[in-house]
UniProtKB/TrEMBL annotation:
Protein name, as recorded: PA2778 family cysteine peptidase
Source organism per UniProt: Limnobacter parvus
Annotated transmembrane regions: none
NCBIfam families the UniProt entry points to: C39_PA2778_fam (NF033920)
Location of the Peptidase C39-like domain: 50-161
């Protein structure tokens, strides 16, 4: 688990001989890896100037970066409020898990981008600022820092960040990649669950975000599942998630419809057949429930014992 420490560290190090020394060691300054050079060369200029800025007080780079991306997404908040959700005084920083959980507690999706530069550019091109975790020091003595990437400037070959006390921090793309790779290129965006998923989002990542949101906000998770089902209608797990929410709300007719959609697009989804059987039991349609659970058992898998328990319920009745 990585921490964010002093937000003033970037201001102290950026552009100084210390940073140059850390990055260069006894060799040359960092360069863009060969496999990413075409990505950088083909990236047009982009700058999300409408991302609000909150200067990062010491140790508050986590709450400040969250305030920027959440306000950009439509949430009216400020770093001091968010500090209650993510700041750990004993650690003088914010853990990554807390950073991802805070938007969910406010009803938003935290979407982890793929850990690579093309994915970051895709998010920027779609209008989404990206929270990233950088290590401003050496791996043996890390100095973790959250920042918000808001653009890329080809003319100077610089990434554009909201970072530390600066609203528009320019950092060479090669240097940025070196600092970012030390967190294994960790980054995420904030998405409204009722909005159409941005084009940089993939079905699996969006589903993972919706499942995580369900733990703290069932209503907005439902909106995310609905958007997922609309965007990726052949992905059964969005229908399955909606079925589970309907079942939990004792809306069994609705739950049946969603489970039917799930097995309709993926007939080998044993869990959906099992849950459909459970729903049909609630609707007192035992013969149909028996047929559904038999399909689940025939498909099998690691949860076949659960399916057999469902079958026993039907027999007991």
């Amino acid at each position: 688990m990585k921490l964010s420490f002093s937000s003033t560290a970037w201001a102290r190090l950026a552009g100084s001989a210390v940073l140059v020394g850390l990055l260069a060691g006894c060799s040359l300054l960092p360069t863009v890896p060969q496999d990413l050079q075409s990505t950088v060369q083909s990236q047009p200029p982009v700058e999300l100037k409408n991302v609000p800025f909150f200067a990062q007080e010491e140790f508050y780079c986590g709450p400040s970066t969250l305030a920027m991306v959440l306000n950009h997404a439509g949430e009216s908040t400020e770093p001091n409020k968010l500090a209650e959700l993510v700041y750990l005084p004993g650690r003088q920083g914010s853990l990554q898990l807390e950073m991802l959980a805070a938007p969910r507690r406010l009803g938003y999706l935290s979407y982890q981008i793929e850990p690579k530069l093309p994915a970051l550019f895709d998010a920027l091109n779609a209008g989404s600022p990206v929270v990233v975790l950088l290590n401003l020091s050496l791996q043996i003595a890390p100095q973790w820092h959250y920042a918000v990437v808001v653009g890329y400037e080809p003319a100077t070959n610089n990434m554009i960040l909201r970072s530390g006390p600066k609203e528009r921090e320019l950092i060479p793309v090669a240097t940025f990649l070196k600092l970012w790779e030390r967190s294994k290129n960790w980054g995420f965006t904030v998405i409204k669950p009722g909005a159409e998923p941005p084009n940089y989002v993939n079905a699996q990542g969006y589903l993972n975000s919706a499942v995580a949101l369900e733990r703290s906000d069932i209503k907005n998770a439902g909106l995310a599942y609905q958007q997922g089902a609309k965007t990726w209608p052949t992905e059964p797990w969005f229908h399955f998630g909606l079925g589970n929410l309907a079942y939990g709300a004792e809306k069994y007719v609705e739950a049946e419809q969603y489970y039917q959609k799930a097995v309709g697009v993926y007939p080998d989804m044993a869990d959906a057949w099992n849950n459909l059987a459970e729903t049909l039991i609630k609707l007192d349609r035992k013969s149909e429930a028996r047929a559904a659970i038999n399909k689940a058992i025939a498909i099998g898998g690691s949860r076949v014992a659960v399916y057999k328990e469902t079958a026993q319920k039907i027999q007991a009745d």
